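Example record for the data management plan.
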Amino acid sequence: MRSFEPPRRILMGPGPSDVSPRVLAALARPTIGHLDPAFQALMEEIKSALAEVMKAPGHACVPLPAPGSAGMEAALQNLLEPGDRAVVAVNGQFGERMAEIAARAGAEVARVDHDWGLPVDPERVGAALKAGKTKLLAFVHAETSTGARSDAGPLCALAHDCGALSIVDCVTSLGGIEVDAEGWGADVIYSGTQKCLSAPPGLSPFAVSAAARAAIDARAAPPRTWLFDMGLLMGYWGGAGGRTYHHTAPINALYGLHEALIALLEEGLAASHARHLRMHEALAAGLEAAGLELLVAPADRLPQLNAVKVPDGVDEAAARGRMLARYNLEIGAGLGPLRGRIWRIGLMGASATPWHVRLCLTALTDALAAQNYPDASRAALAAADAKLGD
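Corresponding structural encoding:
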């Protein structure tokens, strides 16, 4: 066995995204103990920064020691007890996962199914909430499987009007578009580090409101999870009288998250959102100039995750393979009913730059031309450059 030397890839799929050199450097700093006073000071800075980027000043904000799916599991397993009714909006793969985890928690799951590629419909969700006493509403803000964005504020308000809590999946949102836990009235939001934060996968930023904490405290029995039991976790992340040992924190991963949060706050949330939108508009213009279509209607598109329809007669896997082999560029395939029908192109964090846009258009048009699709590289790049203006 030899030391692993990973190939140099450019990551423009649905995640992970490229990790900036400053975050990689932070990951390599010396490991210290997870109860060291210096590390505990770092934990406090991470909590404060998460509250700022999630716009969650009244929430308890911590990073869970696992990827974004852990945030989903923690939210649903902590809030749901057997027999509770949960309304889950399903408009893609990750809404499907929410429904499955809610069922595993013993809940009665009322699904509100949508065609993949559409945003969550507040009218249909409202009707489902009113159909029975409901503990919570769960939905995905930025559906990574389709590139569709749902309007979180009205959905959270519907839940509260019906006396229900709200859980919002922001795994692909945070850093790329507006996330506003307080403004939405969201009770739990969670995210991941490997998307628009441009840190490696392995942590899940998590924010929980006072109302959700009260619901957890009022459970008849402990949640069906130990590692993600919020009562135990909150004791470790700053309980009364000092920290209570719960687990050995992923110390170096938290160094990386800390640095990624510093970089995001240095850029500014509004500036980061504007950068992601500008890159999306350039990519979309180039794709359309090449004769390609996006899955999601313009008003509902995520700037950071672009679902592109595969033209008839094109082998999508072969195109991705050529892009990887010739350009070291990774894009993603479709999931579920969209498998073989779309490519998913990420413009997230450090991967949302003019260079990435131009490289992706060059590589994709080359891969299409190799399958006798009309060569549109010049038109695609000209259209993108017109949007980029640099």
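Summary line stored alongside the record: Residues 227 and 233 are 8 Å apart (CA to CA).
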